[in-house]
Every structure is written in C-alpha cells, then in structure tokens.
Amino acid sequence: MRGRAADLACLVTGSTGIGAAVAERLVAEGASVLVASRTADHARGLARRLADAGGRAEWTAANLAAEADAEHAVAAVVDAFGRLDGVFSVAGGSGRGFGDGPVDRLAADAFDRTIELNLRSQVLVAGAAVRAMLGQHPRGSLRGGSGLRGSLVLVSSVLATHPVPELFGTHAYAAAKGGIEALAGVMAATYARDGIRVNVIAPGLTETPMSARAAADPETVAFAAVKQPLVEGFVSPADVADAAVFQLSDEARAITGQVLAVDGGWSVVP
What we know:
By secondary structure, the protein is α/β, with parallel strands linked by helices. The protein has helices spanning 17-28, 40-52, 67-81, 108-134, 171-191, 212-215, 218-227, 237-248, and strands at residues 9-13, 32-37, 56-61, 86-89, 150-155, 196-203, 259-262. Helix 3 (67-81) runs parallel beside helix 4 and helix 4 (108-134) runs parallel beside helix 5 (171-191).
C-alpha cells in the first residue's frame, strides 16, 4: 500500500525530539526526507537510521538563522530528490540560556538571540522554500495528484496564545512563536493561488530534549497532568508527527492558514 506521504520530497529542520519523530514518520509513509540541523552528528545519525530502516534520507548541517545556510538546505533537497514538496520547520529552542524572561527583565540581546533562534530561522527557511516551490510545476497535475506546488508546516507553541506566566515566563520565546503564527497566516493568504499551503502546529508540553528542565520540575509535571488530560502528562513527539504528516499530505489539500494545537487539551481545559 502507498503511504500517506508517498512520493513527497520533504525538508525537516531539526534532528531530535519532534523533528526526529516527524522525519521518521514521513519516511515510514513513503516520503524522501532531508534533515537539516545545526548539529551535524545529530542530523547524520538520524539520516542513517532512516536509511537503515529502508527510507530515502539525506542530511545537511546548517545554521538556519543564516540566510546562506537556509538557501543551501532547500537547494540540497531539490538536488537530492528533484523538487521540494513539503517543509516541516521546527528548528529552534529555549531562550533561557540567553536570558529570556519577563519583559521588565529582558535585555535586548536576549530578545534578539531568542528571536533569531526561533523566528528568523523559520522566516529564512520559509522564504527559500517558497521560492523553490514557485519555480516548480504543481505535483502530479497531469496524473491525478494534488495539483499543488507544496506545503509548509511551521511549529509554534501553545504558549503563544495560552500563557502560564508562573511557570513559563519567557516573553521573547512567546513573541517568537506568536510571530510564527502571524507569518503563516499572511503566507497562506499570499500563496494560496499559487498552490502553496502554509499551516502551523502548536504543541503543548512535549517530551523533547528542550523540555528536560520542565520534566525535572515537580510543579510543571503536576501542571501537565492536569492541563493536558488527554495524554495525562507530556505530549509524545509521535502525536505531533501524526498531525504533521496529515498537514503535509494530500489529505489536507484543502487546508491552509490554520493553527492546529496538539496540546493534550491545554488550550481548552481551565
């Protein structure tokens, strides 16, 4: 049987946690995947695991907040697979190490570095990806395919719209994630007539290397058990991967400009 992502050529930014789970699921569903990460060992190791499992996978090391690296990552997909059908853009991270915190105690440098890591990187990847998609023929338009040029899924956070300041007082991070949602909305409107879809996944607390601090904090663990009752704690990266594959696949061909919260109930549970 053909998988849900059969024949898709995809770029996944990020090689651990959610990024790794999405890459694994895309390959399992028939996609060819190039993994881009600033950590070469992580990207190389993930691509090797995907290939060992029978998938078609490549990798590149890239600092995606650098314009040349973002352009290179997109070009590498086209060079490897002939086109770019899907982008899952999750590369980013906590700004706590830079000094991210409440705005009254937030230094300009901490803000800039957090925005660069979480928003600038997604803007640059999105721009390079859209340029590639605009320059290619719609996929399968002559043989019953979707007739679309491509799809992007950007990753935000439930914290962009449902803050919990007593536990997550990182204002620059929240601003970056809110910016991602605004970016996706205006991109979706701009490129819909070109056959390019843009959507967002907003995860809740998820089991990733980035969430290790939260997972070690009893108060945060107790919060997750109450606030994310559908999963009784932290969301699994596999749950996010399920949503990502749907959004990138032809099953979502009529969906664009939407934010899908994969948050175990956080955004609706009081």
